[in-house]
Amino acid sequence: MIRVATTHASASAEPTRRDFLFIATGAAGAVGLAATIWPFISQMAPDAATIAAGAPVDFDLSHVAEGQIVKLFWRGKLIFVRHRTADEIKSAQNTDITSLRDPEADSARVKPGKDQWLIVYGNCTHLGCVPLGNEGAFHGWQCPCHGSVFDTSGRIRQGPAPINLPVPPYAFTSDKAIRIG
């Protein structure tokens, strides 16, 4: 007599314990792999000290009101962003540069067509104090420590400071945004 082998295929709709173990083992392996790889991936990004040492800073100018001075930091240095009024621009442009200690035209301190925006370092060039904005005889900045007075273009007008407030490297990325650095 010949026996015929028959197979019974029983497809169970319910997951078995073996299915659960396969899924749990796979999930644990994936988490372990991610935990192992993560330090290698994160070490490729620059650390905070490197970013602070030279990464460019983007700044949105649309929130700065006319006549307002905003302070921000780039490379650990204070930066003043001043939205100058029409009177401040006119006063800065009409100054006789031959009468200045550190002669520099206002047009050399701002970007062409963007006269209303003055961006300068925010430390007095005498001893590094932080001058107060909208102060002094020229309504620019005045150093409260030693009396240096800067005009609305950041040029030294009175006091012991030897040079103007320096202009950092910056560029307009749009009409209302700048990138410093």
Annotation keywords:
181 residues, 2 domains, alpha+beta, Rieske Iron-sulfur Protein
Strand sequence of the main sheet, in spatial order? 5-6-7-8
Instruction: State mean pLDDT (0 to 100 scale).
Output: 87
Strand residue content: 15-25%
Unreliably modeled segments? none
Counting copies of identical and different chains, the oligomeric state is single chain
What would you call the shape?
A: elongated
CATH class of the largest domain: Mainly Beta
Question: Which structural class do the helices and strands define?
Answer: alpha+beta
Q: Write the element-wise H/E pattern from the N-terminal end onward.
A: HHEEEHEEEEEEE
Largest β sheet strand count, sense and barrel closure = 4 strands, antiparallel
Radius of gyration: 32 Å
Tell me what the CATH architecture of the largest domain is.
3-layer Sandwich
Helical content class: 10-25%
Describe this structure in words.
The chain has 181 residues and is α+β, with helices and mostly antiparallel strands. It has 2 domains: 16-45; 49-180, Rieske [2Fe-2S] iron-sulphur domain (Rieske Iron-sulfur Protein, 3-layer Sandwich), CATH 2.102.10. 23% of the residues lie in helices and 24% in strands. It contains 3 helices and 10 strands, in the order H-H-E-E-E-H-E-E-E-E-E-E-E. The strands form 3 sheets. Strands 5-6-7-8 form a 4-stranded antiparallel β-sheet, with no helix packed on it. The protein has a 3-stranded antiparallel β-sheet with strand order 1-10-9, with no helix packed on it. A 3-stranded antiparallel β-sheet has the order 2-3-4. The protein is elongated. The termini are far apart. 21% of the residues are buried.
